[in-house]
Design brief:
This protein has nine helices and five strands, in the order ααβαβββαβααααα. By secondary structure, the chain is α/β, with parallel strands linked by helices. α3 runs parallel beside α9 and α4 crosses α9.
């Protein structure tokens, strides 16, 4: 079978190879045969109009909190592939691993850069889940200077390592860096079939001049400025930071309670945690 990617391409850390459909395929293969559920994918950012970079603001935290609470209705322990706006590159995102166990009051976190979670997340979790112990793994798996685009892949391996640590299976830990992860994932990537070549486009003839949409230079400059501005945005710098966090927690809990009532009305919580 012809594969979509070559081994050399996959293992070259300067290349980005995981597309959306490929990511789903690889994730399922990585968890195949294991007694762990697939991690949930959550994005925690707000993307403003005419801007290419997301921000972690009050709305993003409300949505995050609501989704985390909702998931706990169906399982004590949940793992998350969490996407955040990058703090290293304007217009880019960054993936981290997160696990929450409200029964044992534990929150686990791992960023492939080896850093702790951003302040607004940690402060939000302290309010949202009081009494939970928040821990993170300081292992450095990639470097800011290289920006090798392995964070989405490393997040998957880090989630698996979290499961192994939690279940006492230390011998199964991989603790890969980006090069090791790319070499290891080849066993799954090579199962992705090559896409058939697209049929040649039929020539079409239209009378009259073809109009090409060209965005005004003023618009492009404004979008670039907004992207750079949002890239530098940090919620903790807001004057009413603590009040915003408290409001976000309150809104998330209210939305969660509304969702829970809806599930009960539809008799959809019978197999969950009532």
């Amino acid at each position: 079978m012809d594969t979509k990617y070559s081994r050399e391409f996959v293992c070259d850390i300067t290349q980005t190879f995981i597309q959306n459909q490929d990511f789903d395929f690889i994730q399922k293969k990585m968890y195949e045969g294991l007694d762990y559920p697939l991690p949930h994918k959550i994005s925690c950012y707000t993307l403003k109009e005419n801007s290419g970079h997301g921000i972690v603001d009050e709305n993003a935290l409300v949505s995050l909190g609501e989704q985390l609470l909702n998931r706990q209705l169906f399982a004590d322990v949940n793992a998350y592939h969490l996407t955040l706006p990058s703090v290293n590159e304007a217009g880019s995102n960054h993936a981290v691993a997160l696990m929450i166990d409200l029964k044992e009051r534990e929150i686990w976190y791992q960023d492939s850069y080896g850093i702790d979670m951003r302040k607004e997340l940690r402060d939000f979790f302290k309010l949202m889940f009081p009494g939970c112990k928040i821990g993170y793994n300081p292992q450095i798996q990639q470097f800011k200077q290289q920006n090798d685009h392995s964070c989405f892949l490393l997040a998957q391996y880090n989630i698996l390592d979290m499961w192994h640590r939690k279940s006492g299976r230390q011998e199964k830990l991989k603790e890969f860096d980006s090069r090791q992860a790319r070499a290891d994932v080849w066993q799954y990537v090579r199962q992705i079939p090559a896409e058939p070549p697209a049929p040649p486009a039929k020539a079409t003839f239209k009378f009259g001049a073809q109009k090409t949409v060209v965005l005004p230079k003023k618009y492009l400059l404004e979008q670039r400025r907004n992207t750079e501005r949002d890239f530098k945005y940090r919620l903790p710098k807001q004057k009413n930071y603590k009040e915003m966090l408290a409001a976000a927690v309150c809104s998330a809990e209210q939305k969660h309670q509304a969702y829970r009532r809806w599930l009960l009305e539809k008799n959809l919580l019978n197999g969950g945690r009532n």
